[in-house]
């Protein structure tokens, strides 16, 4: 049995081991992780100069960041850039990337660019395509528009194709820009197979034990974000199809950020959704099935000019006390304080989940936000 007198020596040895590991890993060049030799079939090169100049340094300031950086959990690395926390992501698994390169190697030079152009459009639009199964656009017109949109931004055809094959997040972050107040990470650019985003905070589950007023504030911010993705962009509606506490992060000011955006449905907005009150529009209404089921149909959503999908998803997966596993147990608004427990707020949340054809979720969610604001005013008063 180890006696207490050995503990200082053990801790000292552990500290030395950690310092050695950190120094060893710090010496690894970030540019090697980027795998730039894969270009032009990569995500971009605009960030390579910054990485080469050593302006970005890996962050080992906490055990979580040390563990992630050393073991490259989910191919995510934490770093610092100009006194700001950033996240470096190596998108795609090795087998996915190998498959991408194999596809192109079989092409002749004359068919190369024609194939890339058609493949981008097909994989955006085709529901049964072999690539980007988790991301859809609603029609061919949107697919063609996107290709031209990104190309005019200076993203090469090879880069658009590669990103589209593996993970569309870098493209979406350039449509819904953090600089334009979208609740997404700031996109700094790419180098090889690495992209860099701002570090926006910690996943929603980290706030499970925070005060109810904090969680109510977060709930309002999440709802506002869901509405914005639906109706605020001048060109598109984005319907998120992988909403979970892991994909919503929150900072110290309780502002929210949606991360891992590769799963979604993109629809071009028409004049009807741009200039009319959406509460009065004929729109797609999501159907709720069994408590443990979360089902949606891209075809059904795309049939209408507008869908309440984002609102339904937030109510069912984030707010409801019946949120299915692996969502937060009891929902984000669990354990309400005395005086709130029997409030009709929770009835409205379940109404939002179970709404039938006669119930307008856009109207219900506004009631929920107003109730939350009133309760927060009472608590702070």
Q: Please tell me the overall pLDDT.
A: 85
Name the beta content range: 5-15%
Q: Please give the share of residues in helix.
A: 40-55%
Biggest sheet architecture: 5 strands, antiparallel
Main sheet: strand order: 1-2-3-6-5
Task: From the 3D structure, determine the CATH topology of the largest domain.
Answer: Transferase(Phosphotransferase), domain 1
For this structure, what is the CATH class of the largest domain?
Mainly Alpha
Strands, count: 11
H/E element string?
HHHEHEEHHEHHHEEEHEEEEHHHHH
Total number of helical segments? 15
CATH architecture of the largest domain: Orthogonal Bundle
Shape: globular
Subcellular location: Secreted
Keywords: Membrane, Secreted, Signal, Transmembrane, Transmembrane helix
InterPro entries: DIPK2A/B, FAM69_kinase_dom, Kinase-like_dom_sf
Pfam family, one: PIP49_C
């Amino acid at each position: 049995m180890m006696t207490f007198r050995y503990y200082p020596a053990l801790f000292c040895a552990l500290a030395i081991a950690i310092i050695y590991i950190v120094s060893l890993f710090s010496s690894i060049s970030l540019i090697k992780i980027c795998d730039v030799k894969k270009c032009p079939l990569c995500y971009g090169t605009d960030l390579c100069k910054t990485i080469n100049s050593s302006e970005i340094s890996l962050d080992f300031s906490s055990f979580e960041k040390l563990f992630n950086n050393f073991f490259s959990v989910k191919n995510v690395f934490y770093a610092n850039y100009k006194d700001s926390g950033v996240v470096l992501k190596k998108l795609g698994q090795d087998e996915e990337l190998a498959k991408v390169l194999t596809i192109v190697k079989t092409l002749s030079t004359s068919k190369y660019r024609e194939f890339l152009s058609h493949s981008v459009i097909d994989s955006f639009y085709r529901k049964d395509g072999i690539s980007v199964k988790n991301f859809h656009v609603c029609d061919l017109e949107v697919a063609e528009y996107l290709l031209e949109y990104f190309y005019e931004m200076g993203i090469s055809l090879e880069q658009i194709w590669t990103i589209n094959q593996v993970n569309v997040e870098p493209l979406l972050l350039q449509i819904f820009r953090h600089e334009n107040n979208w609740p997404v990470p700031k996109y700094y650019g790419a180098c090889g197979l690495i992209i860099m985003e701002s570090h926006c905070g910690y996943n929603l589950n980290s706030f499970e034990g925070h005060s109810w007023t904090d969680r109510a504030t977060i709930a309002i911010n999440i709802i506002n974000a869901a509405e914005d993705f639906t109706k605020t962009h001048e060109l598109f509606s984005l319907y998120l199809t992988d909403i979970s506490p892991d994909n919503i992060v929150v900072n110290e000011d309780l502002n929210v950020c949606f991360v891992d955006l590769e799963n979604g449905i993109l629809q071009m907005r028409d004049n009807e959704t741009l200039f009319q009150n959406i509460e009065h529009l004929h729109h797609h209404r999501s159907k709720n099935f069994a408590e443990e089921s979360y089902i949606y149909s891209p075809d059904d959503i795309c049939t209408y000019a507008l869908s309440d999908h984002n609102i339904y998803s937030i109510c069912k997966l984030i707010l409801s006390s019946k949120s299915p596993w692996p969502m937060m147990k009891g929902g984000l608004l669990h354990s309400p304080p005395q005086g709130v427990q029997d409030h009709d707020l929770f009835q409205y949340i379940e109404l939002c989940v179970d709404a039938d054809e006669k119930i307008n979720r856009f109207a219900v969610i506004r009631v929920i936000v107003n109730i939350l604001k009133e309760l927060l005013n009472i608590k702070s008063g």
